[in-house]
Each structure stands twice: as structure tokens, then as C-alpha cells.
Design goal:
This protein is an alpha/beta fold. The protein has a single domain, classed as Acetylglutamate kinase-like (Carbamate kinase, 3-Layer(aba) Sandwich). The protein has 8 helices and 14 strands. The strands form 4 sheets. Strands 5-8-2-1-11-13-14-12 form an 8-stranded mixed sheet, sandwiched between helices. The chain has a two-stranded antiparallel sheet with strand order 3-4. A hairpin with a 5-residue loop joins strand 9 and strand 10. The two termini are 20 Å apart. It is found in: Cytoplasm. Pathway: Amino-acid biosynthesis; L-arginine biosynthesis; N(2)-acetyl-L-ornithine from L-glutamate: step 2/4. Catalyzes the ATP-dependent phosphorylation of N-acetyl-L-glutamate. Belongs to the acetylglutamate kinase family. ArgB subfamily. Keywords: Amino-acid biosynthesis, Arginine biosynthesis, ATP-binding, Cytoplasm, Kinase, Nucleotide-binding, Transferase.
């Protein structure tokens, strides 16, 4: 039995952020979670909508966004600005003392620009380091950190960074100090065998089943980097990972997917 204090890290994305009613309900549920907690949010659909409204054409490869300078300007504005501050304001309304962060704030998450042999992802960051001591201090004084999907390289460059990866890397770093549970919340009930059937939830996925489902094409697109992050986190000290609708945060019986090694 660990003597470490517990910490819940919850990542939201998908249609939750784009639906004001759903987001409000999620934030009310999140506020009821007892103990230490961190919220990580994406916002890709909002960024895509904004980009298209100003004449940009978003590009994605395997669920990851290509980020040139105009697209970086959009994602910083949407993720670190509009979405992050709206979430913080709503959490404050729920008596949760939230504070919004990008990775640049307090040098909390430092990344390097992705160097891929065949694909130029642009201003996309791969997380290198988490400022665990500052994170621990914030949590210990009662702050609930809310992270957007923007990091920096400590050389003055902001970088678009996959929000699932940020949640995963925060969980890995925090597991040195805390007993960490990582929850990925989105609009579905979990990882589904049939995206049209909400009851087709795969209740448990281990690495062998994941490899099989991926080879069969049953798991694809944005779910691949999400699950890759899950298995990486479990191999590096994170205690428990769940994927599903945010109702699982308050309802233990709600259908969801548990990821295990």
C-alpha cells in the first residue's frame, strides 16, 4: 500500500468542449471530485473551426495536427486563451480554486520541436520535462491546475502539443510524488468496437489486445496516439487509466474502458 497522496488527472476533449451544456455539467462533476486534481483540455475542433473561418485549411496526420505559424497563432489563441480562461472561470463559479496554465507558465512543461524523418509537423512539441516541484507546490497550496495544449522550448518558442500527451507526461512526472489515476473523458462511453453503438464498449484493453485491434483496423485515427500514451504512462508508474464519458467520474457503475499492461 502506497503512502503517497492520491492525485486525479482528468483530460477532456472531443465534443465536450464544444457543447456548453455538456462542458458545464462536466465541470460541475469535476468540481465534486475530492482530493488533489488536475484538468488538461484539448480544443482541436474549436481551433479547426476558427482556422477555417479565417481561410486556413487544417491538416492532420494520424490524429496529430500539422502546425505552421498561422495555425500556431490560432491554437494559442483558442487553447491558452478562450477555452482555458472560460474553463477556469466556470470552475471558480463551482468554488474550485482553478488556475490556468500553458507549459510556458512557471516553466511547467518544456518541450522540443518535433523532428520527424519524413513529416514536417511544424511548431509541434514533444514533452521533455515537467516541473514536478512547482506542480507539487501548486497542488499542496490548494490550486487546481488547468493545462491547455500549449508548451514551450525554453528558447522563446511556443509549441502545439497533443493534450493526451500532456496528460500522460504530467501523470508520469507526478507519479514520483503522488498515486496517480489518469482519466481520459470524451463524448463516448469508452473505446468502442463499433463507433455507432455506445454499448460496444471494450471494458478492458491490455497491450496484446491493443496490438490485435490496431492490426484489424478496429482502433485507428486519434485513438491510436491516445492509447499509445496510456501504455507509456502505465509502464512509467501511473497507477490506473480509464477512458470514457465524464459520467464515470461520479458514477462508478458507468461503462468505461480500463487500460492495463
Amino acid at each position: 500500500m502506497s503512502n503517497k497522496p492520491s492525485l486525479s488527472i482528468i483530460k477532456i476533449g472531443g465534443n465536450i468542449i464544444d457543447n456548453p451544456v455538456e462542458l458545464s455539467q462536466f465541470l460541475a462533476d469535476f468540481s465534486k471530485i475530492e482530493g488533489n486534481k488536475i484538468l488538461v483540455h484539448g480544443g482541436g475542433k474549436s481551433a479547426t473551426k476558427m482556422a477555417q473561418s479565417i481561410g486556413l485549411t487544417p491538416q492532420m496526420i494520424d490524429g496529430r495536427r500539422i502546425t505552421d505559424q498561422p495555425m500556431l497563432d490560432v491554437v494559442v489563441m483558442i487553447y491558452a486563451g478562450e477555452i482555458n480562461k472560460n474553463i477556469v472561470a466556470q470552475l471558480q463559479a463551482n468554488n474550485t480554486n482553478a488556475m490556468g496554465f500553458s507549459g510556458a507558465d512557471g516553466n511547467l512543461i518544456q518541450s522540443t520541436k518535433r523532428n520527424h524523418p519524413t513529416i514536417d509537423y511544424g511548431f509541434v512539441g514533444d514533452v521533455q520535462k515537467v516541473n514536478t516541484s512547482l506542480l507539487e507546490t501548486l497542488i499542496n497550496i490548494g490550486i487546481v491546475p488547468v493545462f491547455c495544449a500549449i508548451t514551450h522550448d525554453k528558447k522563446g518558442q511556443l509549441l502545439n502539443t497533443n493534450a493526451d500527451t500532456i496528460a500522460s507526461e504530467l501523470a508520469i512526472a507526478a507519479s514520483e510524488v503522488f498515486e496517480v489515476t489518469l482519466n481520459y473523458c470524451f463524448e463516448k462511453s469508452g473505446v468502442l468496437t463499433d463507433v455507432e453503438d455506445e454499448n460496444s464498449v471494450i471494458e478492458q484493453i491490455n497491450s496484446a489486445l491493443y496490438a490485435k485491434l490496431k492490426a484489424e483496423g478496429a482502433i485507428h485515427s486519434g485513438m491510436i496516439p491516445k492509447l499509445d500514451n496510456c501504455f507509456n504512462s502505465l509502464s512509467k508508474g501511473v497507477q490506473k487509466i480509464k477512458i470514457g464519458h465524464h459520467r464515470m467520474l461520479q458514477n462508478k457503475a458507468a461503462l468505461h474502458t480500463t487500460i492495463t499492461l
